[in-house]
């Protein structure tokens, strides 16, 4: 029997597969598409995702094909300078087109031994106490110990589970696509600058992942389509471009065309028995702020080691349920801030006045930092109960006497950073690495990090450490 089947081979599913493979879990990824998509909806990685890439030794691959950017307080079309003293060693994002991200994560998953089956569409499922039966469109039946739906906003897995997906439907819709233009760049830039004075949901810019002369076109749609699964036509783009800009810029030869809305929904539960949801299958929202892809891979980062612990038999009681407990509130906060952002992007007098006020507020360093931490996810703190101020926070990359903290986390295991040399993880050495080293950036004698880098314990007391180890890493072994 397969250990884990992942429905969906996008960034979320591929990242989850790699996390599971680090722990030796037998993973099969089922992807409906026969070939990787050329559509590039996700345009980059925010700071927390950059940190994750570094924690798993992948950052070099992404830096080689990406451009760094710093846009503090990138909120509702308002851009401010990057705030000072952000709690990270990676104070930047990466402009990485989604097809590139998928290619790199696909390569990583294959290197670790993931089995990826394309052209396989999940159509049904059932589960019992021991496993999950998965039905495919071609009549094939598979069985696994667990199933994770990473199959997008129209998730078949979520629908088959009967999990509620409450929220609001799209009220506004936007056309998005890559295509060639005949207008000269100077004219395009001048017209776009004028239109964006009043309409921030408009843009015609060179496509980062396209051939020379290919532009990324973003323009408000004429209402909300009844069937949003149907791609718009080039004529739809021309019509809307003329409506807002007075010209269609001579657009032609589209590479791909799509539409997106501001529908905002979240799954009521991220787990039902042996079936879990992650990424867009668990939450959808406006793409404003570029958080969608990042939220999904961060779901997978939280879930991966916990699901691996369940498969490998050492997960303490409640560990797998902590995935929903920790990530559902994070998803809810993203839905809240994207609702606010889509309001700020409105062209009516009310949203315009609100955007001007919000822009002035973001000139305050504390506000700018708060908003930047919100968008980049570096401000997340999980509720681990009472304790040290670091408890529940993710640890930034620290400079150590013998290297860097993130260099020690590539294997996806727990980590005790011991600055005293007197602590011990005897009994948990098969799950937790013990590193004796010092950092001028850390003012606590020792920290226990989960595989996702969040602080599970901080202090100097061995008994306190022994009290916390079983809660996250199961019983000790002799």
TrEMBL record:
A Pfam family: Rng_hyd_C
Keywords: FAD, Flavoprotein, Monooxygenase, Oxidoreductase
Cofactor(s) essential for the protein: FAD
Keyword field contains Oxidoreductase: yes
Name of this protein: Rifampin monooxygenase
Domain FAD-binding: 2-338
Cross-referenced PANTHER family: BINDING MONOOXYGENASE, PUTATIVE (JCVI)-RELATED, TRK SYSTEM POTASSIUM UPTAKE PROTEIN
One function term, GO molecular function aspect: oxidoreductase activity, acting on paired donors, with incorporation or reduction of molecular oxygen, NAD(P)H as one donor, and incorporation of one atom of oxygen
Cross-referenced SUPFAM superfamilies: FAD/NAD(P)-binding domain
Cleavable signal peptide: none
Taxonomic superkingdom: Bacteria
Keyword Oxidoreductase: yes
């Amino acid at each position: 029997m397969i250990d884990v089947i992942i429905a969906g081979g996008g960034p979320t599913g591929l990242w989850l597969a790699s996390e599971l493979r680090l722990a030796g879990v037998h993973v099969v990824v089922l992807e409906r598409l026969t070939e990787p998509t050329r559509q590039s909806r996700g345009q980059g990685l925010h700071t927390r995702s950059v940190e994750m890439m570094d924690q798993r030794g992948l950052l070099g691959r992404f830096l080689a094909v990406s451009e760094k950017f710093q846009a503090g307080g990138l909120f509702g079309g308002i851009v401010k300078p990057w705030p000072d003293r952000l709690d990270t060693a990676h104070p930047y994002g990466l402009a990485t087109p989604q097809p590139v991200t998928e290619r790199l994560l696909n390569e990583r998953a294959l290197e670790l031994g993931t089995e990826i089956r394309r052209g396989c569409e999940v159509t049904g499922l059932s589960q019992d106490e021991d496993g999950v039966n998965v039905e495919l469109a071609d009549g094939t039946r598979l069985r696994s110990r667990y199933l994770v739906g990473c199959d997008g906003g129209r998730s078949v897995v979520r629908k088959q589970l009967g999990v509620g997906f409450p929220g609001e439907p799209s009220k506004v819709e936007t056309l998005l696509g890559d295509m060639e233009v005949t207008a000269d760049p100077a004219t395009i830039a001048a017209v776009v600058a004028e239109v964006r004075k009043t309409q921030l949901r408009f843009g015609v810019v060179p496509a980062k992942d396209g051939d020379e002369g290919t532009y990324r076109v973003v323009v408000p749609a004429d209402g909300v389509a009844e069937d949003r699964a149907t791609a718009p036509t080039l004529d739809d783009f021309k019509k809307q471009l003329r409506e807002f800009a007075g010209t269609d810029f001579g657009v032609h030869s589209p590479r791909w065309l799509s539409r997106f809305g501001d529908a905002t929904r979240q799954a009521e539960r991220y787990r039902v028995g042996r079936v879990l949801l992650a990424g867009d299958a668990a939450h959808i929202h406006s793409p404003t702020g570029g958080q969608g892809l990042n939220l999904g891979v961060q779901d997978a980062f939280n879930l991966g080691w916990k699901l691996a612990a369940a498969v490998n038999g050492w997960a303490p009681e409640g560990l797998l349920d902590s995935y929903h407990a920790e990530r559902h509130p994070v998803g809810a906060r993203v839905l809240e801030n994207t609702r606010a952002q889509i309001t700020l992007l409105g062209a009516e007098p009310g949203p315009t006045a609100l955007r001007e006020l919000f822009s002035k507020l973001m000139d305050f360093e504390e506000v700018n930092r708060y908003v930047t931490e919100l968008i980049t996810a570096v401000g997340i703190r999980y509720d681990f109960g009472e304790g040290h101020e670091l408890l529940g926070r993710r640890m930034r990359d620290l400079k150590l006497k013998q290297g860097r903290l993130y260099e020690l986390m590539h294997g996806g295991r727990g980590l005790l950073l011991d600055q005293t040399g007197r602590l011990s993880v005897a009994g948990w050495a098969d799950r937790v690495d013990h590193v004796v080293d010092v950092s001028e950036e850390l003012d606590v004698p020792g920290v226990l990090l989960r595989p996702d880098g969040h602080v599970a314990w901080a202090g100097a007391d061995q008994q306190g450490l022994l009290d916390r180890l079983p809660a996250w890493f199961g019983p000790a072994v002799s």
